[in-house]
Sequence to fold (234 residues):
Amino acid sequence: AQSVTQLGSHVSVSEGALVLLRCNYSSSVPPYLFWYVQYPNQGLQLLLKYTSAATLVKGINGFEAEFKKSETSFHLTKPSAHMSDAAEYFCAVSPMIYNQGGKLIFGQGTELSVKP
Amino acid sequence: GAVVSQHPSWVICKSGTSVKIECRSLDFQATTMFWYRQFPKQSLMLMATSNEGSKATYEQGVEKDKFLINHASLTLSTLTVTSAHPEDSSFYICSARFGGRARADTQYFGPGTRLTVL
Fold:
């Protein structure tokens, strides 16, 4: 079975500071991993995804994430926070098994606040 | 590319009425669409998986007679909340993924529909 744990339901950083959002996964098979961002009253936008290629994945808006199998982690980082980064971030896992139908299992989400 | 739309973006209805929400993939064919429900400050809960031309697969605990899903074409899936009650008030989000046996499945999400039942 697959599961995702996001450490910290709320993270607050100052503008220009490093953003680090933590995600740990549990999977009995090699997973696909995703980070999505959600702005208030909107759907989810894909930030980046890991699909067994390079372990360091670069996404949109300056975000990147590193897949660490030994730590079962896929933490999201951005070197310098911008006010517009304030949003809810979701980590998700999907098993690399065709007959699982591409289901996504989401973490509980982390709300990122950016202080001026 | 990979744009998903939902209509309406918000709807208010009276208790006991039915509401239909549309999910469309605008620039790609989606053999599979997913319907989620999201409560305030919470994560997304998968309600059902909708495959074009076949019956939807519902997650455990989701009433299939309450939440009717139809996926009649490769670009359109609908969710009908029948005999809606205030507890059905929520944010409903759909997603779609490209067809085929692609292993690198990515779901593209619609903007969501806010349902309020009075």
Summary: Chain A has a mean pLDDT of 90. Chain A touches chain B at residues 32, 34, 36, 41-46, 49, 51, 90, 94, 96, 98, 101-104, 106-109 (CB under 8 Å). DSSP finds no helices and eleven strands in chain A.
